[in-house]
Structure formats: C-alpha cells, structure tokens
Amino acid sequence: MMRKFMLKKYCILLAVLFFIPICFANSIPEKDVKTLELAGVKLGMTESELIQLFKNKYQLADTDITIKEQKMKLPPSKLEEQSTIIGTLKTYKVTLDPNKSVTLIVRLEEDIMHDPVQMVVFGIDQKIPYSIEAEQHEYEVLVKKYGKEQSKNFMGDKMWKFTVDDVNSSNNILFFSSSEDGTIDISIVTDQYRKQKIK
User: Which residues pair with 189 in a beta bridge?
Assistant: First the structure.
C-alpha cells in the first residue's frame, strides 16, 4: 500500500513538472492561488506558521505531530537531463479528528527567495476514509469553493489549476481522487519552489 502511495505521489510530481501545462492548454481561466487551502494549510506557509496553525486551530501538542526530514535529488527541468541539485524535504503528519481517521500530510522544502532561506509548504495531502456519502460531500465542497474541475489526469483524478499572477508560470494544482476500497485523497502541490532551484 505504501509503495503504491509513493508511486502515485511521484507520478503527480512528474505531472506537475512536465505534463500539466499541456493538459491545461485549453482549460478555463486559472483560479487565484490565494484562495487555495486545505484544512487551513496554504502553499508557501512557513514552517513556524504551520506549527502555529496545528497548535492553535487543532489544539495539537508536539507529540501529536510526526516530522520526517530527508535530503534528496530534485527532479531536472527537462526529462532528458539529470539533476545534481540536493534539496531538503520535511514532512509533517497529523490526524485532525478524535477518531484519528482523517490524516493530513504536509510537505515542505526550501524557499531560497526568503532571506534567510526558510522551509515552506509545497504539498498538502488530506486522506479521508472512503464512503459514497463522504466522496460526494467532499467533492461538492470543492466545487462550491473553487468551481467545477478543469480536467482529469491519466489516473482519473479531478484537477483544478491555480495561478499566482499573469507573470508567474508556476503550476499550482488541486487533485481529488477516491478509491472504493481505500480513501478519499485531496492533494495540493506546486512547483514554484522547485523551479527556483532548477535552471
């Protein structure tokens, strides 16, 4: 199950970096990324802001938060290239309900435009136990907030694209997927901070 999850996340990252601009070439106008959030977490939020949100909004203690840190090679800017850039990634994992069934996973990496450099949110995943009613409810909430999805990817996930401004070319994508034998997965990801490091 974990291997399948990691494979899907890797496919999503590749899609953001290489394929999404093609998928959305004829999409409806992009939405404002400033409105994009999941459980109160927004792209670009700093690590300290994230911790403050967990403690103030969800009353979580340090022991309720699982943190992992790793170094990894960042993907190249072109498929035929090889990357030698090493980046730091952090993952925060929490549960948001008393039954510990709704899980939030937040991924951070360095924003080198900050002075000094800070870790910021570049990916958010919310996992909810699957039921037909929950799937319909979560989808309706997204449509009410952001409008109908613009497209679907090759895995069948519903997708919304957001933009920072007319000049910023970064991809900021909201995904919605579900599995009848598993979970409802709502994900937000951006390549904004990755592009800072890859020329």
Answer: 123, 173
Tens-place pLDDT, residues 92-111: 999 998 788 999 999 999 99
Six-digit token string for 197: 């490091």
User: How far separated are the first and last CA of the chain, in Å rounded?
Assistant: 35
Six token digits for residue 102: 């709704």
Beta bridge partners of 164: none
Amino acid at 136: Q
Token pair belonging to 105: 């996973």
Scanning 59-184, the segments in alpha helix (DSSP H) are 132-146
Task: List all residues 6 or more positions away from 172 whose beta carbon is below 8 Å from its beta carbon.
Answer: 33, 36, 43, 161, 162, 163, 164, 188, 189, 190, 192
Rounded CA separation 193/121 (Å): 9
Contact 151, 73 (CB under 8 A): no
Token output for 15: 């899609």
Mean pLDDT value across residues 165-176:
73
- Note the pLDDT tens digit of each residue in 9-52: 445 544 444 444 434 433 334 556 778 899 999 999 999 999 99
